[in-house]
Amino acid sequence: xxxxxxxxxxxxxxxxxxxxxxxxxxxxxxxxxxxxxxxxxxxxxxxxxxxxxxxxxxxxxxxxxxxxxxxxxxxxxxxxxxxxxxxxxxxxxxxxxxxxxxxxxxxxxxxxxxxxxxxxxxxxxxxxxxxxxxxxxxxxxxxxxxxxxxxxxxxxxxxxxxxxxxxxxxxxxxxxxxxxxxxxxxxxxxxxxxxxxxxxxxxxxxxxxxxxxxxxxxxxxxxxxxxxxxxx
Length: 232
Prior knowledge:
By secondary structure, the chain is an all-alpha fold. It is built from nine helices and no strands.
């Protein structure tokens, strides 16, 4: 764990999640304002989000671990990287930061402080996509921490940039971000009624990734395959 005190870690989690959501929502609003081409709008939303993730993980990772995601915090709790006593506070900070991020985006674009999203995002394909998105995110984080710790900000940013395009759900992969996005009736919104399916799929994908990567990244397996890269 970081040497920073608990309050600073929680503020870092809230700040990071807030800036991430402000980027997702704000860039979506900007894209809708500038173009009626949905593909171009999604590209703008994608690039802004991926770039912001690199920045946020780089600058806040040393303070809190830069989870910004309840599913990631749960995984780190289960693999004992995050004390169980810290998990509820991390999750609360992430949800609070996410809502604040939506508010900030709305204020920047002179929209109502909060709105209820009306954009439908539901069905088996969407849920499966969210499971895949969260699975891939957790797999990238765990493998990145194992082999190339300093590259994790770039790995996560690049993964999310790609996952926006190869998943039908545009890769929310984050329960806190999903809830925050239900409070904006803009490009990135999701109807509140669709949240349970997304959140369950995200948590399941993250847990499956934890189980698989826990086996795949066993030290003895890595030692046999890549002796020069393995940790002692």
